[in-house]
Design brief:
Rossmann fold, 564 residues, 26 strands, 6-stranded antiparallel sheet, alpha+beta
Length: 564
C-alpha cells in the first residue's frame, strides 16, 4: 500500500476548465458589449432630446437621408443624423450641439425694432442645396459637386455658387421668391406686434405694402391621416413658408390655429387642409365657430390636399382622389395660387330617437358629403370598429380599400340590411315617397361617392340634372345591396334615383340599422332623421386636373346652357 503511487490528475480536467472559461467569455462578452452600447445609445438619445427641446431649430432624427448629404459643420459625407425641418440644416450627430449654437433658424418675427415690412435680408445656408437648382448669378446648376458647397436662402429658396457669392448678395433684400404672395413675412408679424402694443388694428394699411396679390396661406395638416404622410409634409411646408403658418391639427386644434386669420386683412387668407374628408369637416366646423364669434370677415377660403382613404370631397373640388407624393410640395402651392373660389353647401342632420320618455337632446351632425343608411354604412361601421382596435394596421390606402371590399363581399352573402323599404319612410320636401325593395338609401351633397364614383349622373343615355354642391339641393338615390354598390362603382349599373329635394326626412320605424354621415358611422335604433340646409363654406376649386367624368360633366353643363 505504501509503495503505490497516487494517481495523477487527469489532463482533461484542465482542458474542461479552459473550455468552460472560454464559453463564459464568448457568452458574457457579447452581452456586456450589447448592454454597454445600449447604455451609450440611451445617453446619446437623452442628450439629443435635451438639445432638441432647448433649440430654436425644428430638429428631426433620420436613419437615412434621401439624397447625398454633407454635415454643415464638419463638411463630411453623412448617411444619418439630424435635420431641421424649418431651415433645412443637416448635421452629423456629433456636430449637433455646434450647429445648434452656430447657425440661427428661420425667425417667425424679426428681433430688430424696425417697423418696415420690406426690410428683410437673405438668410443663406451653405450646402445640401436642392437637386436641379440653378445659380441666380451665372444660371449654371448648383450642388453638383460631391462636397459641401453653394448657398441657399431659406426664404426665397434661391441658390448661388460659392464663387458667385458676393457681399452685395449677402446684404441684398430678400423678395421671398416664387411664393411671396403666400408667405407671412417676419417683419409683418413684428409690425403687428408693435401695432397691438399701441392698440391699433389698421392691418389693411400694413398689408398694402405687400401688394394686392398677397393671399397668405395657412397649412393645417393631420399627421395621422391616411398613409401617415402628414409629418413629412409639415416639414416641407415649413421650409417653403414661414413656420408660424404651419400647424399639426393633432397638436393644435383648428379653432386655435385659425386665430392667425384675425391678424390678417379681411378676406385675404387661404387655408390648405392636408388630410381626409374628416379633417376637412373638422376645419369647416372651426370656421363655423369663427362666424358665431363674429369673425366672419376673417373666414378664409379652403383648399384640400387629400391624404385620407375616400377623399370624395377633395375629388369633387378638383384636388384628386389621394396624394402620395407624386408631385412636389412646391407644385401643390402653385395649384393653391391658381385655384378659384366657390361655395359648398353644408347641411344639418338631426337624429331624434323615438319613445315617449325620451329626454335626450336630438343628435346633430354637419354634413358636407353624404348621409346614408344601409350596406355602405354597414361597411364603414365594421371598418371603423376594427380600426379603433388596431389603428397601426390601417395606415395604407390600398389596405383600407381591401378591408372595405372584404366587408362588402361578406354583406353580399348575409344581407343584413334587406327589406329596408319596410323599415323606413322617406319624405322629400314634405311629400312621402314610395320605395321599391331597397337595402340602402344615400343622400348626396357632392358629385362623388364611394371613393371616386359619380353616383347621381351614373351611366347610359338617360339624362338627369347634374349634381351640384352649391345649389341648395340634395340628390337621393337607393341601392339594392352591396353587390349593386360594387356594380355602380365599376360602371356596370346605375343607382335607383329617388329625386332631389331641399329637405329630407327619414323615419326608421323599427330594428337597429347602420347609418353614417361623411364616413362617421354608428348603429341607430328607431328614430327620425331630418336633413336641412345649414350654411355655406368658402372653398377653393382647382381645375388643372380633371378626370374623364369631370370632362364629360363639364361638356354636359355647356350643352345644357346652349339649349337654354
Amino acid at each position: 500500500m505504501e509503495g503505490q503511487e497516487r494517481p495523477a490528475p487527469p489532463a482533461s480536467l484542465f482542458a474542461d476548465g479552459h473550455l468552460v472559461l472560454w464559453t463564459l467569455c464568448s457568452v458574457l462578452l457579447p452581452v456586456f458589449i450589447t448592454f454597454w452600447c445600449s447604455v451609450q445609445r440611451s445617453r446619446r438619445q437623452l442628450h439629443r432630446r435635451d438639445i432638441f427641446r432647448k433649440s430654436k431649430h425644428g430638429w428631426r432624427d433620420t436613419d437615412l437621408f434621401s439624397q447625398p448629404t454633407y454635415c454643415c459643420v464638419c463638411a463630411q459625407h453623412i448617411l444619418q443624423g439630424a435635420f431641421c425641418d424649418c431651415c433645412g440644416l443637416r448635421v452629423d450627430e456629433g456636430c449637433l450641439k455646434k450647429a445648434d449654437k452656430r447657425f440661427p433658424c428661420k425667425e417667425i418675427m424679426l428681433k430688430s425694432d424696425s417697423k418696415a415690412v420690406d426690410a428683410m435680408p437673405h438668410h443663406w445656408i451653405r450646402g445640401n442645396v436642392p437637386l436641379c437648382s440653378y445659380c441666380v448669378v451665372c444660371k449654371q446648376q448648383c450642388g453638383n459637386q460631391p462636397k459641401l458647397c453653394d448657398y441657399r436662402c431659406v426664404w426665397c429658396q434661391k441658390t448661388v455658387h460659392d464663387e458667385c457669392m458676393k457681399n452685395s448678395l449677402r446684404s441684398e433684400k430678400c423678395d421671398f421668391g416664387e411664393f411671396k404672395n403666400l408667405i407671412i413675412p417676419p417683419s409683418y408679424l413684428t409690425s403687428i406686434n408693435h401695432m397691438r402694443k399701441d392698440k391699433k388694428t389698421d392691418y389693411e394699411m400694413l398689408a398694402s405694402k405687400l401688394g394686392k396679390q398677397w393671399t397668405p396661406l395657412i397649412i393645417l395638416a393631420n399627421s395621422r391621416s391616411g398613409t401617415n404622410m402628414g409629418e413629412g409634409l409639415l416639414g416641407e411646408f415649413r421650409i417653403l413658408l414661414n413656420p408660424v403658418q404651419v400647424f399639426d391639427v393633432t397638436k393644435t386644434p383648428p379653432i386655435k390655429a385659425l386665430q392667425l386669420c384675425a391678424l390678417l386683412p379681411y378676406d385675404s387668407a387661404r387655408v390648405l387642409v392636408c388630410g381626409g374628408d374628416g379633417t376637412v369637416g373638422w376645419v369647416l366646423d372651426a370656421l363655423d365657430e369663427m362666424k358665431i364669434k363674429g369673425q366672419e370677415k376673417y373666414i378664409p377660403q379652403v383648399a384640400v390636399l387629400p391624404l385620407g382613404t375616400g377623399n370624395d370631397l377633395s375629388n369633387t373640388l378638383g384636388w384628386g382622389t389621394g396624394y402620395a407624393g407624386e408631385i412636389p410640395v412646391a407644385q401643390v402651392l402653385r395649384n393653391v395660387m391658381d385655384a378659384d373660389g366657390i361655395k359648398l353647401d353644408r347641411w344639418k342632420v338631426q337624429v331624434t330617437n323615438k319613445g315617449y320618455y325620451n329626454l335626450r337632446k336630438p343628435k346633430e351632425f354637419t354634413m358636407n358629403n353624404y348621409f346614408s343608411i344601409g350596406p355602405d354604412a354597414l361597411m364603414a361601421l365594421n371598418f371603423h370598429a376594427h380600426r379603433e382596435k388596431a389603428p397601426s394596421l390601417f395606415s395604407s390606402r390600398i389596405l383600407n380599400k381591401a378591408v372595405y371590399l372584404f366587408y362588402g363581399t361578406k354583406d353580399c352573402l348575409v344581407q343584413e340590411c334587406k327589406d329596408l323599404n319596410k323599415k323606413v319612410e322617406l319624405e322629400l320636401d314634405g311629400e312621402r315617397v314610395e320605395l321599391p325593395n331597397l337595402e340602402g338609401i344615400i343622400v348626396l351633397n357632392i358629385g362623388y361617392w364611394g371613393g371616386g364614383c359619380r353616383l347621381w349622373e351614373g351611366m347610359g343615355d338617360e339624362t338627369y340634372p347634374l349634381a351640384r354642391h352649391d345649389d341648395g339641393l340634395l340628390e337621393i338615390v337607393g341601392v339594392y345591396g352591396s353587390f349593386h354598390c360594387a356594380q355602380i362603382q365599376v360602371k356596370l349599373a346605375n343607382p335607383f334615383r329617388i329625386g332631389q329635394a331641399h329637405t329630407v326626412r327619414l323615419i326608421l320605424k323599427c330594428s337597429m340599422m347602420p347609418m353614417q354621415v361623411d364616413g362617421e358611422p354608428w348603429a341607430q335604433g328607431p328614430c327620425t332623421v331630418t336633413i336641412t340646409h345649414k350654411t355655406h363654406a368658402l372653398m377653393l376649386y382647382f381645375s388643372g386636373e380633371q378626370t374623364d367624368d369631370d370632362v364629360s360633366s363639364a361638356s354636359d353643363q355647356e350643352d345644357t346652357k346652349e339649349t337654354e
